[in-house]
TrEMBL record:
Name this polypeptide is given: HDIG domain-containing protein
Cross-referenced SMART domains: HDc (SM00471)
Gene3D superfamilies attached to this UniProt entry: Hypothetical protein af1432
Domain HD positions: 26-118
SUPFAM superfamilies xref list: HD-domain/PDEase-like
């Protein structure tokens, strides 16, 4: 694995992302994934910069592929490969969409797969509160909502529960994700009115 010093900078990643993304909500989703992936990397003693890049760039192609789910993440991975991103980051982006049937092999692959819908669940939890502030919800609240089929329907529960593949309970996984997103609540637009 290449050391972080050989990784493209976050500024370069943001510039690349800006070329392909014009949707503020999607950008906020990618910022949330970046934050949660960073928190997980710290938890596991992994390369935080590398994991954060995978989270930040995982949906780089979504504006182009939203109507063609079978192309989503393939196009994004190709964009990143062409831009010189490391193979493991490119692969994590490619396999976060399970429509391709590719195995998630590394901890980073498995973490990104589970993190992607978790951020949507957390945002939905914040938005149903009158204050619209993620800092006012807790893990217990989200665990209760997790069991409600009608709540945050797009946040695939089976995918979130894949956190077991990285050795985390659902409770721990939600707690880590929630804390990471609470730390950047203002950047995500969910810091209340």
């Amino acid at each position: 694995m290449e050391p972080s010093s050989k990784l493209p900078s976050r500024e370069a990643a943001l510039a690349l992302l800006a070329q392909y993304n014009s949707n503020r909500n999607l950008f906020n989703h990618m910022l949330a994934c970046e934050a949660v992936m960073g928190a997980l990397a710290r938890r596991f003693g992994a390369d935080e910069a590398r994991w954060r890049l995978a989270g930040l760039l995982h949906d780089i192609d979504y504006d182009q592929t939203k109507d063609d789910p079978l192309r989503h993440s393939q196009v994004g991975a190709d964009i990143l490969a062409e831009a010189g991103y490391p193979n493991d980051v490119v692969y994590a982006v490619r396999v976060h969409n399970d429509a391709h049937g590719l195995p998630r092999m590394s901890m980073m692959d498995k973490a990104l797969y589970a993190v992607d819908p978790l951020t949507g669940l957390i945002v939905a939890g914040a938005l149903i509160k009158k204050e619209k502030d993620v800092r006012l919800i807790d893990t217990e609240f989200l665990l209760k909502r997790f069991k409600e089929k009608g709540f945050a329907r797009g946040a695939r529960r089976d995918q979130i529960e894949a956190c077991s593949e990285i050795g985390l309970s659902l409770d721990d996984f939600i707690s880590i994700g929630l804390a990471a997103m609470q730390a950047i609540a203002a950047d995500l637009g969910i810091a209340g009115k």
